[in-house]
Amino acid sequence: MEFQKLSNGVSIPMLGFGTYQIKKSEVADAIKGAIDAGYRHFDCAHIYGNEVEVGKALKDSGVKREDLFITSKVWNADQGYDSTLAAFDKTLSDLQLDYLDLYLIHWPNEDNFQLTLDTWKALEKIYADGKAKAIGVSNFSEEQLKKLFAVAKVKPMVNQIERHPLKTQVELAKFDKDNGIVNEGYSPIGHGHLVLQNETINKIAKAHNKSAAQVVLRWQVDTGFVIFPKSSNPEHVKANFDIFDFNLTDDEIKEINGLDENKHLNYDN
């Protein structure tokens, strides 16, 4: 595993396991498979509707709490100071944890950004109380981050954004980095067929004797993004973890960067 340091010195594993859209009935097997493959970083959220099952599976895994890195997020409907504190407590209870490693605002509220600022104040309290080792945001633009900076006592330590070869997020990623914010990328492989059948990516994969998916994940890590691919296929779960025995060359990274179409494959922020 490779790690990156957050602005407060906390180490975050560069590769995690995503829990989005994992059915409640499949969580136990999915988490066990991920643990067996070597994953210790798990990305969760209240809106995913499976935190109770994820919490039980992690507890049943027998892995020590200090060896896990667990992220969750406050959903839009729970934004606001008091409601965020209540949502956080429910997430802790559902996950059967005493603290989170990272807590994020899932989306900025574009219609009422003051509500998002109040939510951030709640995250600052959670952080000050030691209930989350780090706090951050997700899906924030540069403009929204600047508005947050104007009132924040603690800067976000992470910005989790959509990122794949068809949307490389170069400008936002640079802004984050320049401001001490670690970039996380969701949908790291994009929508498989759009990316994994790409001629350039497959050419690079052949040169490294790796799969197209492994090359894309390695590109993410080599360009400084923390990622958490999700798969229900046990072989894919193992293969996605097998990316730490090679690096891409600068030229290969440039080739993949050149595939950018600024193409959102999820919701537009």
UniProtKB/TrEMBL annotation:
Active site (UniProt): Y48 (proton donor)
Pfam family, any one: Aldo_ket_red
Record organism: Companilactobacillus halodurans
Domain called NADP-dependent oxidoreductase: residue spans: 15-260
Positions bound to substrate: H106
Molecular function in Gene Ontology: oxidoreductase activity, acting on the CH-OH group of donors, NAD or NADP as acceptor
Site (Lowers pKa of active site Tyr): K73
Protein family according to the UniProt entry: Belongs to the aldo/keto reductase family.
Alphabetical UniProt keywords: NADP, Oxidoreductase
Protein name: Aldo/keto reductase
Domain of life assignment: Bacteria
InterPro entries: AKR (IPR020471), Aldo/ket_reductase_CS (IPR018170), NAD(P)_OxRdtase_dom_sf (IPR036812), NADP_OxRdtase_dom (IPR023210)
